Amino acid sequence: MNVITIKINGIDYNLKGEENEEYLNEIASYVDKRLKALMDNNKKLSVSSASILTAMNVVDDVFKTQSKLLSLTENISKLEQRELELTEQLEVLKKQLIHMENYNYELKNKIILLESETHDKIDEEEVIELKNQNKTLEENSKGYLKENRELKVNNKELKFQLQSAKYKLIDMQHRLLENQIDLVKIKKEKNPLIADKVK
What we know:
Elements: E1 2-8, E2 11-17, H1 21-41, H2 47-116, H3 124-190
Antiparallel strand pairs: 1-2
Helix pairs in contact: 1-2, 1-3, 2-3
């Protein structure tokens, strides 16, 4: 447990905390700035009133940050779900594409076989039908490939959005933690059992 002396509004306080000294000083500096800003804006405010208003402002920040954090978490969850859906859709398309390519290969072989038969009468209608089927399959394959490419692009964009949202979530968590610590420091300032005023 670290014990340090901090200064808020020109008054020294002994502060105990598990965090390192640099961090505790940073929190104290933040509270000091918020308190002084309130008192500078309203010279008639007492230290007690300004402390209460500072606490209210910090709590307001905490609540708003929690709300943003919740919204961001929900957004990340939706992005992850959409990414999962796109991945599954990609897998289905890949299987369909493989099936179409195999079928296309079979048709080509049939066409080659029919065209190479010189002893038997070639059923020209069957050849034409097979060629038409082959052409249709090639067009379908191109469509699947295009859709596959589009899904990959969408999936990449979703992954980028998801990563950005995760970074924002981490940032919001840090800000929330800072706001909660600010609130604790203000409470300690007002409660002599927690923070002893240095004589």
